[in-house]
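Page 47, continued from p. 46.
Same chain as before, 109 aa.
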Amino acid sequence: MIYQDKVKSFDEMTNLSLDLRKKLDENYSLGLFEIVRKLESVDGTKKYLFDVQDGEGNLIESVLMQYHHGYTICVSCQIGCKMGCKFCASTGIPFSRNLEAGEIVEQLL
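Result:
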């Protein structure tokens, strides 16, 4: 339901009991990254800078590339990076932590 219906809160999951929705809300979050900046190149490549909404102001970058055979997505697996690649916004962000699995999935959504 979360991925198929793209719900933004547990309250939208009306097929679940009120008690279960309350427990989910008290113990889990749905992420819901905020897009800080979106850049699109002439070839259709889209770069997204996300605020991961963790209360610390952390940002990550994801890139969606379109090719004749389909799409490729480059997702972050860490906040910040130590590599120093010139083309990536993550280089300018000091490494702070690895992303959780749900935070990586959130980039795809």
